[in-house]
Structures are given as C-alpha cells and as structure tokens.
Amino acid sequence: MSTHASVTRMEKIVSLCKRRGFIFQSSEIYGGLNGFWDYGPLGAELKRNVKELWWKSMTRMRDDIVGLEATIIMHPKVWKASGHVDTFSDPMSTCRACKKLVRSDQVWEMLETVPWADAIRAAAPEGKPDAAALLKWATGKGQRIAPNLALVQQPAPILARLAERAAEAEASVHTLFQLLCTVSAEGPLATPCPHCGGELTEPRPFNLMFKTYVGPAATEEDVAYLRPETAQAIFVQFKNVVETSRVKVPFGICQIGKAFRNEVTPRNFTFRSREFEQMELEFFIKPDEVVEVQTGHLAKLAPGEVPSTPQPDWGWELWHKYWVEERFRWYESVGLKRSSLEEYWQKPDELAHYARATVDILYKFPFGTQELEGIAARGNFDLTQHQTHSGKSMEYFDQEAAVKYVPHVIEPSAGVDRLILALLCEAFEEEEVTDEKGNKEVRTILRFSPRVAPIKVGIFPLLKNKPPLVAKALEIQNLLRPLMNVFYDDSGAIGRRYRRQDEAGTPFCVTVDFETIGENGPENEGTVTLRKRDAMTQERVRIADLPALLLAQIS
Ligand code: GAP
User: Fold this and answer.
1) Does the N-terminal or the C-terminal CB of the chain have fewer CB atoms within 10 Å?
2) Does residue 377 share a domain with residue 253?
3) Which of 178, 205, 232 is at the close of a domain?
4) Which atom of ligand 1 is nearest to the CA of 229?
5) 382 Cβ below 6 A of ligand 1
6) Would you state the pLDDT for residue 61?
7) Count of domains in the chain?
8) Where does residue 71 rank: exposed (0-12), middle (13-18), buried (19+ CB within 10 A)?
9) Does one domain contain both 167 and 148?
10) Ligand 1 atom index nearest CA of 277
11) Is the distance from the beta carbon of residue 343 to the nearest atom of ligand 1 less than 6 Å?
C-alpha cells in the first residue's frame, strides 16, 4: 500500500523531473497525451548512457552476443505467429457512470490510493463499518469525491443492505466496497470505479496492440501493428544472423528499441506507458537432450551455488539462473543497490503456457515493488511458431553435436523507461544543510552513479567578470568535452552552482580560482578544486590530471 510519505516522495521526483528537464509530458501544450512521455535535455543524456552501458555489456564485452536493429512495423503474420493477435490482451471494464476504462485486474490496487476509498476504510475501523460515519461522509464530502457511489446516491437503502449483510462486509473489505457501490438489490455485486465510485462492467479482453495501415488503401487487408515488444524481430531474423555472422549456439541476439502497448490504464508516471523502450536479449541454447548426448550429462548446481562461467554441459536451468545473476550484477553496476531489488519466481499458474520458468527482477519503487525486467526460459516456442507460420525452417545445424534442432531460448527483457524511473527514485535524496549565513535549507541531490549521470562534471570560473578565470575555465571545458558531457556555468554564487549540479546528479564540479591562475603564488598554479557531490569534499588537482582521473570514475 502506498503511504503518504511514498506518495509525497514520488510527487517530489515527478516535480524535479519536470523542473530540471529530465521528463516532460508529451504534447504538454495541448494538454498532454496519457501514457506518453518526452525526455528533456538531462533525461535524454541519462537514457542514452543507460542504453550505451547495456549495449556495451551485452555486445562489446562478450564474444557470444551480437546486435540487431529491426523495424517497428513488421509483417502482420509475425504477430499472428507469436500469439499477440489472439492473446495479447488485458481484461478491461468500463464505468457505467463516468464511462472511464479501467484494467479490471488493477481495480483493487488502484483503490488503495484513492481518497474516497481511504474515507470508506476510515469509516470501517478494523473492518467494522460505522453506519453513522458512512452516512455523514455520504451526505457530505462523498458527494464531491465519489459522486456515483451507490452509498452517496441513495444512502438509506444501501446502509440497510449493509446492516443485513454485515458479517460478509466485516469478513472482506472488497465485499464491503462492493456492497456500497452496487445499485440494484438483486443480482451479483458490482465492483466500484476507482474514479467516481460507479459500477464497473464485467471484464472483457482488450487487445493492447496499436493498429495502423500500410499503404494508402487503408482496408482490413492493410492492417499492421506497431510492435508490442522488440523480441519477435530477433526470432524472425534468427536465420539471417546465423548465416551472416560467425555465431554458434549458445549465442545471443540483442536489441534496443521502441515498443508500443495501448495500455488500458497507464500510470505511476512513466512506469506503465503506451510508448516505451525495451532492451531485450534472446539467448539461444542447445536443447537439454543435445547437451546430454554431447557431454554425457547435464551440470547440476550445489545448494546455494550460482552459475558464473558458462560451460558446455549447461542445460536451460543453469543458463536461466546464469542470466538472472548477470542481470542483477548489471543493475548493481549502474547504481541500483541489491537491497532495492527483489527476485520473484513466477508460480506455475502465473507462467505463460510456453515458459518453463520466469524470474522477475523487481525494484522497490515508492509506489510499490514492481517489475523492472523479466527473464524467461521460453523453450523453442517462438522459433517453432515462426517455422510453422512462415513455412521456413528455423533449424540450426550444430556441427559439434552433428545434429539439427530448433534452439531453445532464455530471454532477459528489460524496460529502459522503468530503469530510468528506478534510477531517479534510487538517486533522489533531500538533506538539510546550513548555508554560509547560518540559514537552514533543503539540499536536493540525485546520487546517480557517475557512469549514468547525465552531466559528468560542472566547470565554473570563480568569478565571471575576471577574464583570466573565464579563459582557464573555457580551456578546461575544451579539454574535457570530447571525453564526457560537461556543463559550463558562470552565473550566481559558487554554492548555488554546486546546488544546481547536485539536483542534476552531477558527480563532480571543477572550480577555477585565483590559485589556478597563479595569483596567490606559483605553488598551486595549474590546479583546480575538484568537488565531489557525495562526500562534499574539495581537493586540489592538476588540470593535466583531470581527464584520467575523471575517466577512471565514469567508465
Ligand atoms: N519479450 C518479453 C516482454 O516483452 P514483458 O514483461 O511484457 O516481456 C518486458 O516486458 C519489460 O518491458 C518489462 O519488464 C518492463 O520493464 C517493460 N515494459 C513492459 N510494458 C511496459 C509499459 N507499458 N511501460 C513501460 N515499460 C514496459
């Protein structure tokens, strides 16, 4: 459940994102478009750094993964074969009163955070409804915040029904809400609309793919879809990659790119968007039977052992665990603490029908612990589907084992935007500091890892009206800018400039002062102060040493 503190924290993060140019609402001047977000100057740098680090760790640092960049619109048969046309849907309900659409499986979660539902819970301490308190609220504030709730519209009969069914209401808070929202005395109980308290319709499936038309005719024959995941392009191009690169199973193909889902209820800032980016890897492995024939056995893990260096005798279970561990390690390398993450093994009844196992990596967002990435063992479902629907063989000839097979796959699939949000939540901190005049103020800091920080170093001349200081600062800017993103700032007191960089998450600031230009004697000439955001310490370093010193911290 979201607490007041976590709601406030989230509001502060959203407001900082807007104020400092990390994230803006899309088309804001036209009132915005729900579920679509733009990244401002700092956000764009942050996102680029994150994608670059993922790409580098997947491709350049490994011999067994290659990259792909495919189109967003593909042949519609791709989505028939993958199952998305028939089954990629969420259950949706409509409010009979306000007509808003709600994802049926998220109603109760939404009701945890809406003020009118809080008022009902407050009027039912320890689950026991207080009829007088409910009546007072229904004839007062309830009329404004839940105008379509049956209790608000006709308090007397609804409270009478509640009294008759008190035992059911006390046994389940969901039933209490249902009793208070259902208009008719007969028939099944309804579920309340989180927005207005009206009755929701029964759930019905709603396909999440965005439809478009290819070509000018725009008939049903021309329907195409914006891809809802980047993964399918990898399966569809599997054969081309095998034939044109020197890859041998086990190997992976990875891709970063846009995906689109017409989410019923986009929410929690960028967490659930309608346009977002994914970083996906399809890691193709030998079927277990082939590994067994080839190596004589399948490797087993000792209790508590974590697979680290890939071995020829690994079956799918070890590869799956290996990728779970690799992905945790990577998240730590970009600045998410292990204690902020959780590992969730989907239960058998939660697994997609083709998945043998799926592990979700969850992040503890202020609004709840939620999925950042899923790592699924998908068997050979996707390649087999495309083989059947396209009529083209997806078999791979394994020279070592001298057999043909359709490879199996392990799929670590991450969302870029969710990770950006997690990094912002992880980095956000406020602390009380005392300024030079003894006044207390709140220092807002984004404690990004230097590797992802949008600006790596702020460069300041102590005074902007002293040409030798300015010239030296500009010289340092030119020295560093080919190597990293720098920000030159000469306006305001130096303390203010530090604060502005703290809010942007800049890990280092360099100040050119009178020592630098030798005005206080020769011993510190050619040195600057290097201020570290987290320690708030300042040390003198030689300008010539800056590139190596900073590069060591950010790479
Ligand atoms: N190919 C597998 C796949 O797409 P998924 O769990 O549906 O699996 C993978 O999506 C990741 O994509 C999620 O863990 C999440 O980080 C991101 N993602 C999915 N839907 C999203 C949305 N509506 N908004 C932002 N990110 C989303």
Assistant:
1) N
2) yes
3) 205
4) 4
5) no
6) 97
7) 3
8) exposed
9) yes
10) 26
11) no
Does residue 231 line the site of ligand 1, with CB under 6 A? yes
- Report the nearest atom of ligand 1 relative to the CA of 373: 14
Tell whether 468 and 416 lie within a shared domain. Answer: no
Which helix (H) or strand (E) segment is 342 a member of?
strand 341-345
Between the CA of 445 and the centroid of ligand 1 the distance, in Å, is 29
d(CA 100, CA 302): 53
Q: If you measure from the C-alpha of residue 383 to the centroid of ligand 1, how many angstroms do you get, rounded to a whole number?
A: 20
Q: Does residue 444 fall inside a structural domain? A: no
* 439 in a structural domain: no
Same-domain check for residues 350 and 499 = no
Among 91, 89, 90, 85, which Cα is nearest to 385's? 85
Contact 229, 413 (CB under 8 A): yes
Other beta carbons within 10 angstroms of residue 357's beta carbon come to 18
Q: Mind listing the pLDDT tens digit for each residue in 224-261?
A: 999 999 999 999 999 999 999 989 999 999 999 999 99
> Residue 442 C-alpha to ligand 1 middle, in angstroms?
36
Which tens digit of pLDDT belongs to each residue from 408-430?
Answer: 999 999 999 999 999 999 999 99
Is residue 83 included in any domain, yes or no?
Answer: yes
Atom 7, ligand 1: which residue's CA is nearest?
229
Give 65-92 as a DSSP string.
Answer: EEE----SB--HHHHHHHTHHHH-EEEE
Of 404, 424, 444, which residue is a domain's last?
Answer: 424
Query: Is residue 278 within 6 Å of ligand 1 at its C-beta?
Result: yes
* Residue 392 Cα to ligand 1 middle (Å): 29
Q: Are residues 393 and 269 in the same domain?
A: yes
Please name the residues in contact with 262: beta carbons below 8 A apart, sequence gap of 6 or more: 206, 207, 208, 209, 210, 274
Ligand 1, atom 20, residue with closest C-alpha = 272
Pair (190, 225) in one structural domain: no
Q: Is 414 in the pocket of ligand 1 (CB under 6 A)?
A: yes
454 lines ligand 1 (CB under 6 A): no
The answer to whether residue 34 sits within a structural domain is: yes
Q: Is 261 in the pocket of ligand 1 (CB under 6 A)?
A: yes
Examine the domain organization and report whether 141 and 271 are in the same domain.
no
User: What is the pLDDT at residue 153?
Assistant: 96
Residue 473 one-letter amino acid? A
Smallest CA separation from ligand 1 atom 15, residue: 415
Q: Residue 1: its pLDDT value, please?
A: 46
